[in-house]
Amino acid sequence: MRLACSGLLLGCWLALQLPAVGAATPIIAADYLETSPHRELIEYALKVTEADYGPVTLTFGGEMVQGRAEQLLKDGKLLHLVVFAPSPERERDLLPVYFPLSQGLLGYRICIINSGQQYKFEPVKTLQDWQKADLTIGQGTHWPDVAVLRHNSLTVVTNPLYTLLFEMVRQQRFDCFARSADELARDLQSEHATGLVAERRLLLHYPQLSMIFVSQSFPQLAERLQKGLEQAYADGVVQQHFRRHYGTIVDQLRCEQRQLLKLENPQLSEASRQALLRFAYTPEQLLAAPAAACKGQ
């Protein structure tokens, strides 16, 4: 790495921190990435760019909500990268890496509901039906999904604490805790999900991506991750990763043949939209045909 550069660049910052030439650079990621499927793609992207940018090791910060993670990332001292959905504010204040880590699966939403309340959703066949029924949706206060859902005239109740959203749906503070298809199974296995089930008929969809955001203090890290992830896609690693981690989920969606309710996402920037066009699946591609395993059911 060159040291004749701005003190804000990752290489310069690391040169001041490392005790020995050639030692691996610590990159601090948000805590939830330690057990996330996204970790594999991030580590691959860092590995394939090592020759150009130097060796790194991925470490993880303490537990935090999204709002706190954003603040730490802006500061750039205790956190270097996070993964969450984009918003205009995040794209303005942080460095976005325009690559959908789960190839757009974040935008496919299924309700977690109270056991015994499926009847509320049975009459819904269109987005207009949902609006007329005034079914309410619970979301995290700092999640960009809140603005998306409200733009589509859906009623949203928020709380900053993820775990409390389970209790709120249980207490009927709202009807549907909307979760992405890849989050649903994990959430229902949580100790917080007692008495809750997946709604059986509907699939909300809006264009959305899980993407990396980097502190503005480290533009070279954002550049490196963008190059590394695009290389991973070219190598077929992203596609293999998707099949391994999400293939069963997609097969299940195809088998269930849910009613698709399409929503607009007015917050999506042109750069995010182009990333989805290049690297993600459309609903038609993802749900095009029932999986072979569904035959005869």
**CATH topology-level name of the largest domain:** D-Maltodextrin-Binding Protein, domain 2
Task: Give the fraction of residues assigned to helices.
Answer: 40-55%
Describe the main β-sheet briefly.
7 strands, mixed
Indicate the CATH class of the largest domain: Alpha Beta
User: In total, how many domains does the architecture comprise?
Assistant: 2
Mean pLDDT: 90
**SS-derived structural category:** alpha/beta
SS elements, strand count = 12
Question: How many whole angstroms does the radius of gyration measure?
Answer: 20 Å
Distance between the termini: 58 Å
The CATH architecture of the largest domain: 3-Layer(aba) Sandwich
Proportion of β residues?
15-25%
**Secondary structure tally, helices:** 13
Report the principal-axis shape: globular
Query: Stretches where pLDDT falls below 50 for ≥5 residues?
Result: 1-21
Order of helices and strands: HEHHEHEHEEHEHEHEHEEEHHEHH
Can you tell me the CATH superfamily of the largest domain?
Periplasmic binding protein-like II
Summarize the structure.
Helix 7 (145-151) links the parallel strand 6 (136-140) and strand 7 (155-159). By secondary structure, this protein is α/β, with parallel strands linked by helices.
